[in-house]
Amino acid sequence: MDVQLTAAHWVYLAGILVILATMALRKNIVVPAVVATFLTALTFSGSIVTGLSAIFNASLVAAKELFNIFLIIAMVTAMLGALRQLGADRMMVAPFRRVMRAGTSSFLVLAAVTYVISLFFWPTPAVPLVGAVLIPVAIRAGMSPLSVGMVIAICGQGMALSSDYIIKVAPGISASAAGVEADAVADKAMVLSLIVGGTALLITYLVQKRHWRAPSPDLLVEWEAAADRGIGDTADRGIGETRDDSSGDGGGSRPPRRPEPAGGPSSGGGEQAATATAVLVAPSDPIADPDSAAEKERRGTAKAFAMLVPLAYLAFIVYLMLGKFTEVVPPLQGGDAAAIVGGIAALILFAAAASTDRGGFLETTSDHLVDGLVFAFKAMGCVLPIAGFFFIGNPEFAGPILGISADAAGPAILFDLVTTVQSHLPQNAFITSFGILLIGLVAGLDGSGFSGLPLTGALSGALGPAVDVDPSTLAAIGQMGNIWAGGGVIIAWSSLVAVAGFARVPVLDLARKCFLPVMAGLILSTVFAVLVF
Predict the structure, then answer these.
(1) Contact (Cβ atoms closer than 8 angstroms) between residue 371 and residue 277
(2) Quick check: 335 and 166 in contact, CB under 8 A?
(3) Taking the CA of residue 24 as centre, how many other CA atoms within 13 Å lie in the half-sphere pointing to its CB?
(4) I want to staple 517 with a disulfide (CB 3.0 to 4.6 A). Which of 66, 137, 200, 431 is the partner?
């Protein structure tokens, strides 16, 4: 069917190209997205009033679609703040130190712990927890600092975040833009993330193992001395930031407010902003006497929560799996899984806050919730105007943005463009899939985690039916490219800086070493997706 392109189509296309070029230059894309929204609406309607109102309406529509994501981030962040104040966060990972006695065992434990924590809470707490507790143990066991950083980046910012299977922020954004179910994207993204991560980890192990040494306490002293001499300037700045951020807080007071993300609050979404909180280390203990009754009570409470949190989420995983693979319990639909994660986080927050500050329990809980909401909007707020622009191309959302009545259908601007272009392109699933992967990688060049997902999702919804590929499959492929690049694995100006800071290695070296293993995994996963899904 022939589609008649209008001036609005060309303006919208120009907006996409400008946004991609801005991403390639590692600049923030909020302003180009807002300007493109205004110009598209103005051209389509011929009314400056509609153009101006579209700027607001686009973000409002995006906020309605994505507010559940903001809320789950806020609740989980608030819970982690309460656990950090209690000291339970460090205790959750402390037992793993007992099995990290050699390079290989440390590699496996480091990968598993980082992945599990990041899968449930995002890499935000994984970096400080692993950095403060497990990295020194891994160094002492013989692993090289560079391989330590690679494992944490691949398992946290890469493998866990690219699927985001539990909290489902990333699949939710991709699915909304593609017009498919979030669970369909999440299931395929989980499989693809394991392929990419497994491939990258295997290559990392084979390449880096020759640099490992025999376990010795001297390795830890050498590692610390190298950092003190200034080896790895960028990485050492990350360490300095960590010390500064934690220096003014006592264990019995509320945690300090989270710092601005490395790229500023508008640096592009998701996890690079989230990892800005990763430079927070658990506060020091204000109680002078470790044998005092108060200290023993505090430690006992912290241990109880260190066991309670993993058990609570383990029970949730069991329920999730029973619902998915059996008929014992009803399966969770839509956003139910994320809602349960948020509900569990809220109850643990209340209990932890009450245990830490019985007298000021109500105020402390409120403070943690406010901190969580502030952080959620710092981490994800800039996604709204970006998503709003790409939503204009989707007829489901274009009507409210452009002020069209509910009875009338909105324009399918993006789909019209794709339909027109497809007649001039080879109808090949492999070419389309690798094209979506490439767009995802380019979208991640700004060092952000999620800002490119509306673009790859919208393109997946438009291109999928034409090449006989499920749009959810293409959306998952685009999600892989976007997050493995911008989430903090192969882009040095992303949250990878935090990982390099704790591992005490130059961030550029870390990004270069991760590049080939990750790209090999992305290519393999894309081929797998086309052939199997």
Answers:
(1) no
(2) no
(3) 9
(4) 200
